[in-house]
Amino acid sequence: MGRGFRKRLGGKAIASEDTDTFSIFGPFHLTSIDWTNPYHRTSVASSLVNGVYTLEADRLEERVGSEALAKPWWEFFHFTLLETLNDDDSSIYGAIFEYELYNLYENTPHVKVPRYVIAFRGTVLKGKTWKFDLKLDLKCIFNTLHQGNRSMYALNAVRRMVDKHNHSAIWLAGHSLGAALVLLAGKTMTRVGFFLESYIFNPPISSIPLEQLPGGDIIKGVFQIAKSVVKATVAMALTDLQVPIDDPKTASWIPYLYVNPADPICAGYIDYFRHKTFMSEIGASNIERTGARKSVRSLLVGRRGKTLSSDLSSEPLHLLPSADMTVNKNKPTKSTTAHGLHQWWERDSTLRENWESCCIRPYPEDKLEQLTLQ
Fold first, then answer.
1. Closest by alpha carbon to 329, among 282, 278, 274, 373?
2. pLDDT at residue 119 above 90?
3. Do residues 338 and 332 lie in contact, with contact meaning Cβ atoms separated by under 8 Å?
4. Percent of the chain scored above 90 by pLDDT?
5. What's the confidence (pLDDT) of residue 184?
6. Beta-strand runs (E) in the chain
7. For residues 339 and 4, what is the distance between their CA atoms, to the nearest angstrom?
8. What average pLDDT is seen over the chain?
9. Are 111 and 35 in contact, with CB atoms under 8 Å apart?
10. What are the beta bridge partners of residue 118?
11. For the residues 119-141, what does the mean pLDDT come to?
12. pTM for the full model?
């Protein structure tokens, strides 16, 4: 669940050094940043994440000095690297960046501008790094990402920054496995009252990607409803028929999700929110909410004592009451992949017209804003 080390561009195979080169592969067309423009914010956030990928690539390839390729991914946008975040195997999985021009926006509170961005990369299938990364990929599948040293290190880094600085000026960004870390950190900080601006690219979801299955929407809808009913029935039986109530703090956190329906790793979010909206429309929000709150793993394990509704370990990581979701409906080409991070700084404006925005908000009386996705 991350960026490949070999890609194709214009029908020709190219090495990772080329894809790591900002002047060839990056959003170098953005010579000035308009922070009120969502596309600009998306491009900067995804570029910083790619900078973390390239930091790890520099380490693995032993590229140092003038041969290192990572710096342009943040220096082009006037960011400084404050700190790298390293795992037990010395691999670089994250970084903390500071925006050098932040002071210019101190008198414009209506403009979203980060002072610090904490970025996390996804899986790297190279060197010894792949062993640690694949273990975490499995934790995502089994909803145990909160266990393990990297998750603990990442949460500690976020907490440390929040303790030292104004949380409203701290942004999170991550791709794939790194997106899962952002979800974990963002939801954890939300539970204690800190709402961090978060950019989550191609996040993994531990569910059947119905977008990838043959058959009509009716079959998919029936499957989703049946799954919700079964899970809700089992969950309520194990919790003395208590219907969970969404934490209003969690509902107030509105992360930016970026998904591609052709990507089986993240496509499930489309069905998740579509189903959530449909169940609200037919007055079955309680069933959907109860079923969604429990992962299949937690139901199979059974009741080992009651857990609080705020216990992140007992619920799927993808459980979100609110989100701003961008869906890239362009089909993958030779130069792009459905799971690739680079699609989110797409330079072709005609292709960006196929990005669709979906806003999910809980309304009073359990009503949700409509999804526009077809």
1. 373
2. yes
3. yes
4. 55
5. 95
6. 7-9, 12-14, 79-86, 92-99, 116-120, 170-175, 197-201, 256-259, 323-328, 355-360
7. 10
8. 80
9. yes
10. 96, 172
11. 90
12. 0.82
